[in-house]
Design brief:
Rossmann fold, 6-stranded parallel beta sheet, two-stranded parallel sheet, 18% strand, globular
């Protein structure tokens, strides 16, 4: 199989390339410097030239707080750009994967969200991701919308890395205790996406690490596994006064009978920390 990956230099994109190559797929990496997904004409030309069997659209605007003041940029990348990639893939006879977010939910359910639950985005970022889901779905019938959560991996900024840097600089961190989700290692997510594109199970998929925790609990586990001595204080979300609202509970589960299940989040964290140590 020939797989084109937009946003190939990003955290998920990098791991997608590695996961696809590991099972002998031919990969066409399209980093942002090679393809800006907001340039509709360039998207059509590059996807047509690549002639892939599948396109995994990892290009995204990911600054949740920044999006609150930059609706245009968030929508351009996460919605209109996603629609352009999906349409170009359809024109090329390819399927398309759109990685999406647990933040499309408002967190009021009180139980893990499944694919049939109604999205209710709270933030501009979440609105842009839901719009991207819908534009992808409308543009290409052979679509996989893959919702995941709280991603961490080697090739990008992430919570675990931030905690370790803060511990080194200050010896103390303050972390919110009242947001709960499913922390997911991009290495595991990438392997699942590569498996998924080998199927015809089109539609919405929830693919996140098993289990759930708060950001506070995640910080404690980061320091425990990394054997780092750091004082961890907790606070409520309202005390941080962040620009973008977050769902208080956005753990993901799946109702699909043939779902691809990921390992527990603690195992994903261990895999990430091992990779991080080896890359140091």
């Amino acid at each position: 199989m020939r797989i084109a990956v937009t946003g190939a230099a990003g955290m998920l994109g990098r791991d997608l390339l590695r996961a696809a190559e590991a099972v002998n797929h031919e990969v066409v990496p399209l980093a942002r410097r090679e393809l800006d997904v907001t340039d509709t004409g360039a998207v059509a030309r590059r996807i047509a030239a690549a002639a892939p069997d599948a396109v995994v659209n990892c290009a995204a605007y990911t600054d949740v707080d920044g999006a609150e003041g930059d609706l245009r940029a968030a929508m351009a990348a996460n919605a209109e750009g996603a629609g352009a990639v999906a349409a170009a893939a359809a024109e090329a006879g390819s399927s398309v994967v759109y990685p999406s977010s647990d933040y499309v939910f408002d967190g009021s359910k009180g139980a893990p969200y499944v694919e049939s639950d109604e999205p209710r985005p709270l933030s501009v970022y979440a609105q842009s991701k839901l719009a991207g889901e819908r534009m992808t779905t409308e543009a290409n019938p052979r679509h996989f919308v893959v919702r995941s959560a709280w991603l961490f991996g080697l090739a990008g900024r992430n919570f675990a890395d931030t905690m370790l840097r803060l511990a080194s600089d200050h010896g103390e961190v303050i972390v919110v205790r009242d947001q709960v989700g499913s922390p997911t290692y991009t290495g595991h997510l990438a392997e699942a996406i590569v498996r998924l594109v080998d199927t015809d199970a089109y539609g919405v998929h929830h693919v996140a690490a098993a289990g759930e925790c708060s950001w506070y609990e995640l910080a404690l586990e980061v320091f425990r596994q990394a054997a780092v001595d750091c004082r961890v204080l907790s606070c409520a979300t309202e005390e941080l006064a962040r620009p973008a609202p977050r769902p208080p509970y956005s753990a993901l589960a799946t109702e699909r009978p043939e779902a691809i299940l990921l390992p527990d989040w603690e195992l994903g964290l261990a895999a990430y920390l091992d990779e991080r140590a080896r890359a140091a």
